[in-house]
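Dear support,

We are seeing what looks like truncated structure output for some complexes. This example has two components. We would appreciate it if you could run it in full and send us the complete token output so we can diff it against ours.
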Amino acid sequence: MGPIRIEPQKALDEALKLQQKLSAGAQTLRSLDPVTFGVTPKEAVYKDDKVTLYRFKGERPPTTTTPLLICYALVNTPYMVDLQDDRSMVRNLLALGQDVYLIDWGYPDGSDKYLSLDDYINGYLRRCVDFLRKSHGVDAINLLGICQGGAFSLCFSAIYPEKIKNLVTMVTPVDFHTPDNMLSHWVRELDVDLFVDTLGNIPADLMNYCYLTLKPMRLNQQKYIGLVDILDNKTELENFLRMEKWIFDSPDQAGEAFRQFIKDFYQGNKLLKGGLQIGDKSVDLKNVRAPVLNIFAEQDHLVPPSASRALKDVVGSSDYSQIAFKGGHIGIYVSSRAQREVPPAIHDWLAKRA
Amino acid sequence: MSNSAQDWINQWQALAQRYWDGWKTQGVMPPAGFGKLDANAPWQAGLDQWAQLFGQGNPQSDLVDRVTANAKSYVALMQSMLNTSVGQEGGGSAAAWTEAVRNGFNIPGMDASLWNNPLGTNFRDMAGQGAKGFEQMMAEFGRGAGPLKQEMLAGLGMPAFGLAREHQERWQQLGSAMVEYQEQTNRYNTLILKSSQQGFERFQSKLAEREEPGRQLDSVRAVYDLWIDAAEESYAEIALSDEFRKVYGAMVNAQMRVRSLMQTEVEQQTRQLGMPTRTELKGVEKSVQELRRHLKASREASAADIAGEIAALRAEVDALKQQVAQSRPAAVPKPAAADVNPPEAAKPAAAAKKTKR
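Here is the complete output from our reference environment:
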């Protein structure tokens, strides 16, 4: 018996369904409004060059006294955490009583080419944290770092342990040399100095191209075949386009920060192995003394779970917890399972350490 | 021809007719010659016409381009598979089906160098949709620097001497870098082609697993999804290999050398025209960043100084207040009879105001 048995009638149905979806899409696509993201009301409370610190406004006042600061990655915009009404980690955290702040790093241009990790971590991030400590009259805040922002948050917590009450890391790479880390594998032979000296800032298009080539057939072909299935559904199509906009509306990367991140984190693996310097400050994860909640995604193709799990063995905190989420790097923020599971898990963990 | 095979062909032609009838209602016409119920008329042609319904400059046109590009592959695959199905009644071998899938990706009119290389086609499509990978960046840059390339190639084989020797040496370096980049790109493309080939092999072995009764695939989508799984697994295996790591790094580094040397040449030209160069601008940008850092550090230090000074002054004032309070003689209570000023007592709010001030 052969491996494929396609009945003519079923094949006909399949072909006609495809055609009907495409025909319907001709109407639906014309009726769509421009999509946006970042839906929760927010107020800019502090500005520092292109960096803006926002405070989100919930439907009721926060019940917690310690502010929660979200530190996102430099790649992509931070609004993955507040994509749309029914897919917003921020909105869910506010509803649980958290007082949520977020750093928007902005879009670096040529004049920001020489921004270094020292500028980002000891500069912008520290000043945002100090602003919150002062405005809330607290010695330490809760910090939630995401992806590269999680690596920044770990560095910050190691350098300034007295300023962090609780640390949450999400899909954060710690061991950059696990064998399943394709990005790390690719950049290992890269001459980063030549790369940055030549390109200056690293174009967002190039970054996105590299991400797509991690799973080229799935992300650039199968995804759009799947899109045909929802071409007749305006809501689903808008959700798809919103995500698409988020994926490709990305900032360029400041050259110097990129240089150091690739050299020290991806190539040198210094966050794990030690020897990492951010400006004149040494980073030793043993200095992270605040309670740590480490959340990672089991199907993450950008930051493999093995890269995040490594934190357990190197962090100085005696209060370490971790959650393995069933989903991918993006699903951990936007899937319906994530809406149900992740914000309550963070809130409950913080509440026990208030 | 058996009856069942003839039935299949009849059904297949009816299917093709209905497919195009459906398109006609959308204003999409079948390709020439379809009137003869030719089941081999390229189905993906309808997608091109569908895409044209949106016109250029539509806000969703990028999405339409992506859907069209991928749906064309899918529809071609569908057509190839249905053609292969004729008369087989589910009996075709894994090898025959793999061949059908392979042919499905070879769309008439496509670049022949990408024949049997769906992964290479995929990368090319990504560039067509506006994404800029290393090759595309180089191609764009190369277009702008075309005249320089001609100049460089002309001088590549000549000895360098005299007034222009420095220029010629630079051109020779650039020429070598371009040759090197081409070699590295070829090595990279070879691995991508290898990945495509291994994808088909893996697909065939996955198909063979489906020959067991009850595990057969019964839709084109299921076949397509299985092909994607096979292609991704093969690619991941190659992309995580030491060889790929070296080849990928060498390709990117080689391109950066070419771009860097071309930038030097552009600077040579712009300097002669009295225009500011990239190097000069970088120098200014670096200085601006250093000044920015210095300014922020000064502001913070000065704010800290002022805060310290205020705290010290407050402490001093508190200490003085305490001293004054301690040195003041204890108040002697006035006799009640001496209280001749009852209106003051009747104005507590005014008294409180004075105290506040």
